[in-house]
Amino acid sequence: MTPNTTSLIELPTDLDGTQLPQHVAAIMDGNGRWAKQRGLPRMMGHKRGAAALKDLLRCCKDWGIGALTVYAFSTENWGRSMEEVDFLMTLFENLFQAELAEMVLEGVKLEVVGDLAHLSPSLYRAIDRAKTATQHNQGVRFTVAINYGGRQEIVRACQTIATQVRAGEIEVADIDENLLSEHLDTANLPDPDLLIRTSGEMRISNFLLWQLAYAEIYVTDTLWPDFDRRAFHQALLNYQQRHRRFGKA
Ligand code: FPP
Asked: What are the sequence ranges of the domains in the chain?
């Protein structure tokens, strides 16, 4: 083991603390495959995935990364078996309840994005309670996407803006990129600098379509439950080797 990867509690010395992404987004893929490889039910993969997420959130705090946004459940995920959907919804609810005290203690500010109107009342209440309890926190901004689809989010924003135009509150000429951003679920969050996708798939799968316009994309074969600090370190090293041009020469 090299000295800078012994514990990884501190920022590894081969990373430049002034060039870290301020907002990291993650598509947490591969829970099912992780479980299958071990002859375990898929649900065990999701449980281990939740543990990996918890450590990543703590790592963001330890290393000074201000925002983490994760894709927990897409609008397409309703197509999974009822057993798996129910398991995931119960897992989310339990986590929002069980981890709330620690999130408050660690200064995490929780946000949940997506179409929440169709979640069960008890999950909705757990989300609402956790958001309210953490709303004034100044630490890592932790955003969880549940029943989220990037296209749907943009459509919802357009509907709100169109309603405002029809009511005479704004003019068509007032519609610009800033206005649209302000009507997305992620309003007030800076766009992600880095998108991490685990388990090797080279797709963004309807995640943060607008917000990822200039993000660096890092795909790793590591399955999500194995995505630990060492894997995050590799992702950040890779990110720091990129030259971000934002479309300029
Ligand atoms: C994708 O792996 C993972 C999910 C659909 C669920 C992710 C959820 C968690 C890690 C729990 C997080 C909890 C909170 C509160 C944010 P997959 O099932 O698609 O894996 P596969 O592609 O190998 O089948």
From this structure: 20-149+202-232
Per-residue pLDDT of the chain (249 residues; tens, 9 = 90+): 444 444 689 999 999 999 999 999 999 999 999 999 999 999 999 999 999 999 999 999 999 999 999 999 999 999 999 999 999 999 999 999 999 999 999 999 999 999 999 999 999 999 999 999 999 999 999 999 999 999 999 999 999 999 999 999 999 999 999 999 999 999 999 999 999 999 999 999 999 999 999 999 999 999 999 999 999 999 999 999 997 667 776
* Bridge partner list, 71: 27, 145
Answer whether 0.90 is exceeded by the pTM. Answer: yes
Asked if residue 57 has its Cβ within 6 Å of ligand 1, the reply is no
Q: Count other C-beta atoms under 10 Å from residue 154's C-beta.
A: 15
CB of residue 95 inside a 6 A radius of ligand 1? yes
Class of domain 20-149+202-232: alpha beta
Kindly name the residue from 55, 62, 77, 228 that is annotated as catalytic.
Answer: 77
176 labelled catalytic: no
> Does residue 193 carry a catalytic annotation?
no
Q: Is the CB of 144 under 6 A from ligand 1?
A: yes
Token pair of 159, please? 């509907």
C-alpha angle with apex 216: 66 to 187, nearest 5 degrees?
50
Strand order in the sheet with 141-148: 109-113, 141-148, 67-74, 23-27, 194-197, 216-219
Task: Write the residue with the smallest CA distance to atom 6 of ligand 1.
Answer: 72
Q: Is any ligand 1 atom within 6 A of the Cβ of residue 33?
A: yes
